[in-house]
Amino acid sequence: MSFTNIKGRVHLLGDNVNTDLNCSSKYLPGKDNAYVAQHAFEQVAPGFASRFRPGDVIVAGRNFGINSSREQAVHILRTMGVGGIVAQSFGRLFFRNTINNGLPAIECGISGIADGDEIEIDLAAGKLMVAARQISRAVAALPPAVQQILAAGGLIAYLREHPDWQLA
């Protein structure tokens, strides 16, 4: 899957979905990511994990990923095969964790997008589309450095590819 061209089925969540809802502390420590992923979002969307397929896209309202800096929350989403996340806004620590772990996250208005829609996001062109609903929206371009980190699969992978990297 290319990080610049994301296509998948929408799984719609609401506002203020915090990291405990996809990576509940009641499962950590002691359980592996695959086990925790089977219970992702069960408190706000019962059966979410069983309906989710690799490549699908989470679409959410305001403040997605608020609550804590728990990086495992993104690891769970990667384990599930999340293709990307679109939300009106993100918790800042969560947003940075998505980049560090190679998971595209896009801030964009979500009005008109429904659960089950097929969505396409072209990050290189800065466009989000839901053809069946005739939705076409511009999305903010990610900075070139962030695009490079995502293309590498995350920050650690990027640094392994660029061992001579230095701050400017």
Q: How would you sum up this structure, described in words?
A:
This protein has helices spanning 19-22, 33-37, 48-51, 72-80, 92-100, 144-152, 155-161, and strands at 5-12, 57-60, 84-87, 105-107, 118-122, 127-130, 135-138. The protein is of the alpha/beta class and 168 residues long. It has one domain (5-161): Aconitase, domain 4 (Alpha-Beta Barrel), CATH 3.20.19.10. A 7-stranded mixed β-sheet has the order 4-3-2-1-5-6-7. α4 links the parallel β2 and β3. The radius of gyration is 15 Å and the shape is globular. The model has no long low-confidence stretch (mean pLDDT 89).
SSE topology:
Layout: E1 5-12, H1 19-22, H2 33-37, H3 48-51, E2 57-60, H4 72-80, E3 84-87, H5 92-100, E4 105-107, E5 118-122, E6 127-130, E7 135-138, H6 144-152, H7 155-161
Parallel strand pairs: 1-2, 2-3, 3-4
Antiparallel strand pairs: 1-5, 5-6, 6-7
Which key terms come to mind for this protein?
globular; Aconitase, domain 4; single chain; 19% strand; seven-stranded mixed sheet; 7 helices; 168 residues; 7 strands; alpha/beta
Shape: globular
**What is the level 1 CATH name?**
Alpha Beta
The tally of strands reads 7
Q: What topology, given as strand order, has the largest sheet?
A: 4-3-2-1-5-6-7
CATH superfamily: Aconitase, domain 4
What is the CATH topology descriptor? Answer: Aconitase, domain 4
TL;DR?
With 168 residues, the protein is of the alpha/beta class. The protein has helices spanning 19-22, 33-37, 48-51, 72-80, 92-100, 144-152, 155-161; strands at residues 5-12, 57-60, 84-87, 105-107, 118-122, 127-130, 135-138.
